[in-house]
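From the pipeline queue, job 12 of 40. The input is one protein chain; the requested action is below.

Action: predict structure.
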Amino acid sequence: MQPTQVRKRNIRLQATDIDGNALAGIKVSIKQTKMNFPFGCGMNKKILMSTDYQNWFKKRFSVTTFSNEMKWYSTEGKQGQENYTLADAMLSFAQENNISVRGHNIIWDNKKEQPQWVHQLDSNQLRAAATQRVSSIVTRYKGQVIGWDVVNENLHFSFYEDTLGENASAAFYSQTRQLDPKTILFMNEYNTIEDNRDQLATPDKYLKMLQRIKAFPGNNEIQLGIGLEAHFPPLKPNIAYMRAGLDMLGSAKYPIWLTEVDIGQIQNQAGYLEEILREGYSHPGVTGIVIFSGPYIKGCWANMCMTDPNFKNTAVGDAVDKLLKEWKFGAFEATTNSEGYIETSLFHGDYEVSVLCLERNSSYSLGLNVAGVFKEETIHVLIKL
């Protein structure tokens, strides 16, 4: 499916006088003020100390995920000594610049990714500590994040299930929902759409885990989301497999995000990344994309830097900027026809429409929201001068 079929809608505007007579030759200009599709990039603490990094980021992206700063091992390195200083500062920067934040993550099911002190706890102590962890971070950031990765990678790993019982993940989702009922709660997994050689997190197993979470007592009304890390190996991506996986997951009608997109270092890395991003953007079930990359500041994730140390674009950076430009709507100007109409196609988003009638020495402006629908539909807008 082409992006124009999924991310755009046709609009038809008519200019008339107050008596309903069509006005021909009216100049109409349309300018996008906000892009609806969330496209973002991971962010790390180095942004707090680099104006160049800040300017680079806010020029491009509307959403972010903190690489590590919200994770439990970052906020409670010593038991009982919570420190949200970095996460708070990064959230403030994001909010000041209208950048939405995904909450990543509350609990990680990988034994190796726990705070060190967690490994000394017995099962009762672990349950109490994890419950406090959920309460602490969710209460702190309630209403300030657009989604929570509640239990990270609970198909590949099962640290909490092995220690607390098979419903451990579902219980964490239940607790999170009680604390923050309006925010979408995501699973977040890798190799669900990236690599068919990994059978631990296939699309069908992903959906079964979502069903288990929802079947837990009290979770029937929970707002769930599908988080797909999309860490592609250093190989030519299997786009057909990716598409089939998205189709299967999309059938469940949960919002799908590609949450940590990257591809290992390989010749044509930038070209392959572009293929992956285009496929995600073109799928009607995908409602947001975050890439795990950034400028070169003492290295970058998966060796997929978007800039060199001087903030000059790499090939990867060029590929991302190319897509950002393509997926945004440039200025549009037209003159109404003999029946007072103009027609065009706009990406989903917010727009400012300006109308100028020189003969009448009058002008008019209005805001227009072009919302997403999964069917062909034309928006009709009537302008009276």
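Job complete. The mean pLDDT is 93.
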